[in-house]
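Worked problem 6 (solution included).
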Amino acid sequence: MIGSLVLVGLLLGLAALLVGTDPPPAAVADYLRLQEARDRLPGSLSELASLADRDDGVGWQARVALGRWHLAHGAPALAVPILRSALALYPTSDLRADLARALEGAGRAAEARGEWEALLPHPDAVQAVLRLEGDPLRAAAALTKGGAPGEALTVLAAVGGTEAALERARALAALGRPKEALPEFERYLASIPGDRGVHLEYGRALERAGELDRALLAYRAAGAAGAYAAGLVLEAQGRAEEAIAAYRQSHEPEAKWRAGRLLEAQGRPRDAMDLYWELARGTSRVRDDAALRLYLLHRERGEATQAADAARLLSPALAWLAGVPAAPFATAADPLPSFPPAMALADALLSASPSGDGRQWAEVELAIAESRGSPADRLAIGEWHLRHGDWRAAFRVGSGVLPSVPSPRAYRLAYPLAWWDTVVHWAGEYGVDPYLVLAVIREESGFSPTAVSSSDARGLMQLLPSTARWIAEEKLTIPYREGDLFSPAVNIQLGTWYLGSLLRESGGDLAWAVAAYNGGPGNLRRWTAGGIASSADLPAHLRATETREYLGKVLTSWLTYRWLYGS
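Solution. The predicted structure is:
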């Protein structure tokens, strides 16, 4: 044991020496040589081609420069294999666009279209799909799927026929115009009445248009695929027995969960428990919720053995809610230290060009090394990102290693103390556990200050601009600009105040506050209006699947932070 510790100490000392010394001059000199070769094109084509044979950052930069030069100078066929090899080494959206242009220039339209479709809904990609796809139906389908339904409608403006009606319906539905989509769906189904998948799409459009009775007919025509949606409509209408029957017809685990909840409400807990046991022993996202219901129901009936069996299936978060000891977090020994040369090179590149290309060069070197490295190499690279304050990159690396190597180093990367001084300051100011703030940041944005959701929530703690303005101007009486939501300091202050306000509103009920942060306090008040026996009953009352899952994720992150760094 002592010998192992000495070995680790020696290796760590060597790491410090390596990080603290200048790398070989040739490492940075290769990049200077690369820059010079790019500046001397076309006279340096052979030199760039030689550099492009390398499978490192220099090789990637050389491939990009060489491929783009050939593309710009009328040789797209030469550019294609070079750009494709660069994309395989380190992919970027700009590089994929270059490859698509080269393929198109080389007369390989079908391959070019595939690359452009991967870049939708970027305007250049939209124009390329319109240019390359001669079949308006296929073009419209690709545009709608790629997030450009408005352009799809334009393509279909003068196209008739059954298939065109279906693509128009899909584009209109994607644009949030369900009433206009309905006659197009109906035109298609009049010709092809047996298409169950389209019946399901039609039912969703009818439901969004407020035509619930017709939506039910469409969902039923979709068979088992529409049963879950039918059950939701029936349950909302108070038709519990019909809803249970619909849910039982569905193959969706969420439908079985809803059926169990309705059976409980009808005073049929044994029938509900049969469904819960099926779910708890499975692998779906509702298995933890089903295990919690089983534990509570068996405990209520004094069935200690069955309750204990259910408790063993609980996740740490739901075990905490239920007040039972959770299984310990999975842990493994840290791998022996590794010192990928890319780390020292990355530091040297940053020093050589702190305000120029150095940052991009370093990121490429590290990304390539990470993609090929062992878990020990990847942990070392993640820790490099941690030292340089790139919390999102450290989180990404740690989260990738953690499932296979749940070691303390992997946990610290996957659960970093990001913006810790700022978090601690505002958490203390507003009465919130700083680890809870970090848990919310982790699950909301993955530590990306520039994150923007589909609902326009922004920044680390994913605040809507309207909510952020209300907090800043009405509650904190501080200046507010919308762009400030991408500032970690501002976003953390506003988000922590909001989290603290929800804790105060709930009387300190952490689970209620977390669920309200996602689902909205108004919804939480409605969902729990009849009262709940304890926090352990809260997940069963959360009508939004997203909110129920969010509660479990944030609580798991919070408990992990407390376990990792001390409560």
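Discussion: Residues 545-565 form the longest helix (21 residues).
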